Amino acid sequence: MYELNDKKIGAHLKELIDERGYKTTADFCRRYLIEKYNTVNYTEDKLNEDLKTAKNTFSKILNGKQRITLEQLPILSKLLCVSCEEILSAGKHYAPTINHVTNYDIAQSRDRKVWDEYMKREDRLFLNCDEYRKTVIDYALEFNNYKFIKYLLDEEYIWFVDNSKEGYGPYYGAGTSIKQNLGRFDNDTDSFIPREFHEQDRLRTQTAVLAIENGDCDVLELLRARETPEINLAFSTTPNYHDFKNSRNENLIEAIAISNDKRIIDYFTEEYVLPDKLKVEDSLFVFPFLGEVIEKLIKNKNAFAETVIRRAIEHNQNVYEKLSALIDVEYNYLQSIGTRGTEKEIKNQIARYFRHDDSSDCVSLSIIAVPHKAFVGNIIKSESNKLSSEETKYIEELNRSYYKVISLGGE
What we know:
This protein has 411 residues and is mostly helical. It folds into three domains: 6-88, no CATH class; 103-217, no CATH class; 236-248 and 258-409, no CATH class. The chain has helices at 6-19, 25-36, 44-62, 72-80, 84-88, 103-108, 112-119, 136-142, 146-154, 195-199, 202-213, 217-223, 250-258, 262-269, 290-299, 305-336, 343-350, 389-406, and strands at residues 158-159, 175-176, 283-284, 354-357, 362-366, 374-378. Strands 3-6-5-4 form a four-stranded mixed β-sheet, covered by helices on one side. A hairpin with a 7-residue loop joins strand 5 and strand 6 (374-378). The relative contact order is 0.07.
């Protein structure tokens, strides 16, 4: 057993409330009241009237100055997706879950009938994490239950990239069509998924790993698996290219490198441009971690290694040609309006708008004078060593093409 410690319980509740995505105590209190008084007679005006008292009560609880009641405990358990025992022990103990259906059980099932019944439950169990703070999706990925993940995607119960939105921003977080039953006050239409699901890319990239293992290129396309969320910000006036490392998934890189499926290799080596909705005039990208894929392909003695290196070289060359063309256009324009200086001096002046971060293999060039053209893209290099003479030749050519682009930045 354990002794109740109000301060520790309050501190643990604070952590849980933050983890579940409630921005303020008031937000949580509102959800608490909706859950507590979920009847047709409980009006918005009454809720706002009760909110002040609830905020005061929970402020005391969270600061360890007031003990939670038996009435509050089951509601807190439901809203925070943890057991009553975890709350009372301040996170030290967990209650067993052997007598009821669990996320763990469902995630191992291969039975569509079981999935259908689970997704239609009135208590919306799908939206909840268990006492170990894991959802059914977490467990399905752990168990490599690709059929269940595919079922959720096909039935549009979940998504990882919402292409319907007019600017889906830097995050490709999870979303769901299942909504929490909030009674009459359902203005907050966000599904009750922990905040980190919306903001991290792990679920999308781990699902992509399973899609690769199952040779499912359609799902890779749906997941935009060769992109990273930060690419959507690559055209920013103050891009942070180091953010690309946040989307690096070692499992995804490894899955590509051991694949013997030509369609998978083709998908991840194909060039692509930014969506029109991002209003970028010109762009050219390839999977940002292709350099690491090349290193692993060589290490694994994968037959596609040479193909991938050649495509990376071709991509670098395409970026070079686009940038060179833009610089030439701008140079000719500046000459036409009487800009003084040698060709080298004028092109160095243009190169002030060239931005590159060598640490993440990203390059960006913006031409902001007339004719107001801009280009963003990335380039690939490889740090491979212990190569055969033939492999060395290709890697040296790849890296030459990389630094050839860098040289356009001038002095």
